[in-house]
Amino acid sequence: MSTRDESPRAHDMPAEGSNDTQAGTPDVAGTPDVAGTPDVADTADTETPPPRIGVYVCHCGGNISDVVDVQKVADLAAQLPNVVVSRTNTFMCSDPGQTAIAKDIADQGLDRVIVAACSPKLHETTFRNVLQRSGLNPYLYESVNIREQVSWATAAGADATAKATSLVAAAVAKAARLSPLEPIRVDTTARAVVVGAGVAGLRAASDLARAGIEVALVERAAALGGNASVLDHLFPSEEPAGDVLTRLVDDVLAQPRVTIYTEALVESVSGYVGNFTVTVRQPTHGLVLDDEARRSGAAAGRFVPFQGYVFDAARGGGATETARAQRVGPVSGDASGDAGALDAEAPAATVEIEAGAVIVAAGFDHYVPRKGEYGYERIPQVVTLPDFIRWLSSVEPGAGLPDYDGSPVAGVAFIHCVGSRQAEGINKPQPDGHINEYCSRVCCTAALQAICDVQAKRPDVATYDFYQDIRAYGRGHEEYYERASKGGTVFVRWNDQEPPTIAKAKPGDGPAALVRARDGLTWGEEVEAAVDLVVLAVGMQPADVSALVDSLKLPVGADRFLQEVHPKLRPVELSVTGVLVAGTAQGPKDITETAASASAAAAKATALLSLGHVELDPFVAHVDATLCEGTGACVTECPYTGAVELHDYPDGAKRAIVNPALCSGCGACVAVCPARAIDLAGWSLDQYEAMVDAILAGSEAPGR
Description:
The longest helix is centred in the last third of the chain and has 19 residues, at 591-609. By secondary structure, the chain is of the alpha/beta class.
């Protein structure tokens, strides 16, 4: 530990610019409140004492210190200008580590804090809170990532230590130029739009309404329930899917704050947290079920197996002339209420919904095998697992063999990982050029549950399970594997380089298909099973949410599902503030996990909207109107619609104005401004220059 006492504590620093400098600035409606920039003339003659900086270097339990000489980094940091405290700690994020920072702020008069540790994504908020509790502006903190960017990326020794030292020196140079910032305050609309009315959407809508938030539930199908509707009963509880979905829908219909839009498609979303405008296209035969419609009886309906919760009005009866839920023309899909697909040619209306938050619960699509994949669409007895579940639901328990398409079924083969865990060079890409390299997680248990159902209903049917790995990961899932094993299922383990092959049996041979694979459990012996049905356990694919992704610039992972900010610390939040994700729009989940994530997203949205306003980080662009030449280069370069716009000023000139709630702080506008009139609060050009100078100065030092 090194300390240096150079000057008394500085309590008041000039605020770093975080809004447009006034030069006859026009009054722009709808721009959130944000701390203004002090007049330079007012502060030019005010002398401020030099900053007092504390540097803290973390061992990270060996993650860093096994590679970087953290004590040397701290000792060298102590020699830098304005650094009065330099310490190391095994875990800076621990209570003792945080307490050490707070004590130094009080005892040493620190007014800037630097922590060299892991990624700021993990603990930046942790250390900002330490400053706030200690009476400092939380934005007088600077992170240095010497774990992911140094110890995890650089060989141990002098090079790693030198790199960490340079990054700390750059942070010290920047910290000396930090100024207090104030959060951006944005008023919020106490309404949320939930996209998708499957298990996740229904659960989220119910939770939000119970918390006092108005909800617009937008579903693209005519029926509610999503993919859970195509199931017979659910694992591990074995409850009928219809009972679970009926309870969820009844909960939603009992909430007067929920308005349901069926057969509706989100076309675009504009705005920012607290003030989104969601544009929804709905055919005239779609239903709008608000509280008035429910009280009039227009929301009457029931669960239809393998279709979902279907409203009587959508089925052709039950709607009254006075009800808000009215339809004109036929329902998409068949008259029985099948979800069907939205008809782009059908007469439609556009609805704009004002909302403070958006929850994306759009669900998933089942992988559809291409023609010929495992014999699909070439051998009629090759079916997908959802189709098999529907067929099996109609089979009565008893002795003997069931019939499929007029033929007895004596044997069934299940093939795992169809459309999941695909391998480059082995599986053909889909039309979009992608292969699904990820595991869909629930397929194993779903296939095992189906095997157990076959054994329970018709024990005379032989079952075969061709798998890569059995991933029965959830509570109660392993029991299905044990039951299937004890029931006589033959398990054959194949590897991704040699997937099973399906051949059509010759006429007169009896079985419909021959399944062949090399069995890893018997050291590569080739196994052949003659069966009457082949069931493909198809995986999950992300549903199409391209309108939301394009409108809001939502992050998408390599698996094409929506990407959360952090899987542990912010598991249901997307990088766009106010937009949350629930259920399988985020990735493969079972229904238990889906409901949990939906409730988490609803809780986050409730916390966001319940106060009537939100506070956002102030790291946004700001314009010095005295320098702005109105070229519009910043507007052209900005990837976020409405974040930067040109406005007419009283002097007749056009100058840029930033909407801080829409600005992401990406800095694209800064790079193209010819007059250097635009800058980022917390990441200004002079701070960058100071950081570069510090790094270059270190690289020129003797002995480096």
